[in-house]
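Below is how a single chain appears once it has passed through the pipeline. First comes the sequence as given, then the structure the pipeline wrote out for it. We keep one example in the README because the format questions we get most often are answered faster by looking than by reading.
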Amino acid sequence: MRGPRQLIVVAALAAAVFRCDVEAHAQVLPSSPIAVEGRAGLSLPSGVLASGQRDIALDLGLSLGAAVIVRAGSGFAVYAGWSRHGFGCEPRADCDVEGEFTSRGYDAGVELVLPHTTVFEPWLRAGATLHRFRYRTGGGFQTETEAAVGFEIGGGVSIPLAPRLSVVPSLRFARYVATLDLNTFAAGGEPFTVTRMLLEVGGRLRP
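Resulting structure:
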């Protein structure tokens, strides 16, 4: 009986030493206030962009983006980045089904981390966008609006995979109003409202 008891004591001491070593390492490991984020997902047009402006109705497409996030305080961060939101032509609409429709430009704003009691970190984001809308037909014709200021709001959650790496699913709404001549598709002319929902999954790395 003495042997098993000694074995249990030794195992308990080893586990305690291992735990202390892990905790000490975690405390020594520096936490960078800067994170780099890359994401991809779906762009879902909404409002008149989906229902049609002058019979031009768009369908869902691919969304891509990247951002740098700087933690400025407890539960508060600022971000800046670039994004591209693609769309397809709704088959019943009066637009080129082989065409390319994209909204691309810069995004910046603030991110607030919500109170939480688990390792999952929920957050809300709000900011301004500076985007252009581009229409390129299958035949090579292309037009692009002037850059227009808009806004985006949304939220997500950071799920840690490693001490410095998290996976970040998110849902955002974005809107801006550009000007586009819908008769000739030249820049300028009447207001052209670009609204979309962005369902994305990304990775966030703290160097």
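The helical segments are 2-28, 48-51.

See the next section for the split statistics.
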